[in-house]
Amino acid sequence: MSATPPPLHAPRGWTAMQVDSHLHTLKILFYVLGGFELVLAAFLLLVTVAGYVSEPPGSGPDAAPWLLFILMGVGAGLYAVLGGLSLKVAGCIGKRRQHRLCLVVAGLACLTGALGVALAAYALWALLRTEVTASFLDSPRKAVA
User: Please, is 19 exposed, middle or buried when counting C-beta atoms within 10 Å of its C-beta (0-12, 13-18, 19+)?
Assistant: First the structure.
């Protein structure tokens, strides 16, 4: 008797070339997002310092320049941290290390606005595939099903 052929609608996994292509695209996108976040952090820091310096000393009893200075400084710091993490993850994706960090930073990319949400959706879709997970060096799953 002959063996039964596999069903025609059987889901197919990604080839090694497709995994490489998606990870390369993710690496480039995380570098772009990280650079954009660092430029935005520098701009926010510049605006914060310029706004505080240009504030006249007697602008009114209810003026709170310190509050604005603190809020803008925290925003600049947050974008700087997110930018640094995005650049770190881009390097990790290129070396295929620290899969869990890549997933966490992909989720944190949602904090950066519409560009980050789109990147996070694509990154999580790609990084959660079993073929991609198995391609990372520190992955517990080494065999591709």
Answer: buried
Length of the chain: 145
Rounded CA gap, 88 and 2, in Å? 53
> What is d(CA 47, CA 45) in angstroms, rounded to the nearest whole number?
5
Contacts 24+ apart (CB under 8 A), 27-30: 27/90, 27/93, 27/94, 28/90, 29/119, 29/122, 29/123, 30/86, 30/87, 30/89, 30/90, 30/93, 30/105, 30/119, 30/123
pLDDT (tens, 9 = 90+) of the chain, 145 residues, equals 578 876 777 667 878 888 899 999 999 999 999 999 999 999 999 988 887 777 666 666 666 677 778 888 899 999 999 999 999 999 999 999 999 999 999 999 999 889 999 999 999 999 999 999 999 876 555 544 4
CA distances, 126 to each of 48, 59, 92, 142 (Å): 38, 53, 15, 17
Amino acid code (one letter) for 63? A
